[in-house]
Design goal:
Length: 248
Amino acid sequence: MDINLIYKIVLSMFLLYETVIYLNTSKITDVIIEKSFGDKTEINSKSINRIAVMKTWYFAFFVISYIFSITSIKSYNKEYFFFANADYYINSFFFITGIILMLLLRLLPNKAIKNDYYKDLNIIPTYEKILNELQASSIKDDNLISKEFDFALKSNYFEIELSQFKDLLQLKEPTQKIIWKPVVKTKKKDRQMLLTFLNRLFQNQLIKIERKEVCLFVNKYFDFNEFDHDIKENPLKPDNIGAWMKNN
């Protein structure tokens, strides 16, 4: 088999492999669908959007490197190239150059995501992690607890038992998650209203502790999905907290 053909096959297989990896990890298709049709996917985190855009730029240069290499590997005309009899070495040079460039553009996005810029934007850790900063609510009086509970029920925030509400205030392990009901105009659950409500119940602690801690707390006790809600919602993310804090 012609060595130049082998070079092209190797480069093409690498391109095909990287394309599949890119589509599976960047979530760019979901981001495009959401931007085009709105609120039909679970991609609503700015961090995911930023990573998708960053990976897309790297992938674009990856494809350019492939095109450069694949079009440079060819048979050279002796009339125009004094080194045409050494085209094997020339094609090997372009093949190796293409492989190196493609490998770099394959590895650099993963390295970039580990940068400090993305640390605060990454998806929060599993809910089993212990809440370190948030303290239980100082609302202890049964009358005050009942007043807050009745207000939440009348506002149709959720449908739970009083005992479950008390467990929330005392940060006891939840028996089941609380379904948060209010939605905004986009038909997504109103996360900012939930954060404001909880911040009041917990004496403004949510604006003082780390964002990941707030996410851990909310996602441990609350769920945004319910049977008749036709949008699959992501758990709360740190950038959701940032948007809420700007209004507080």
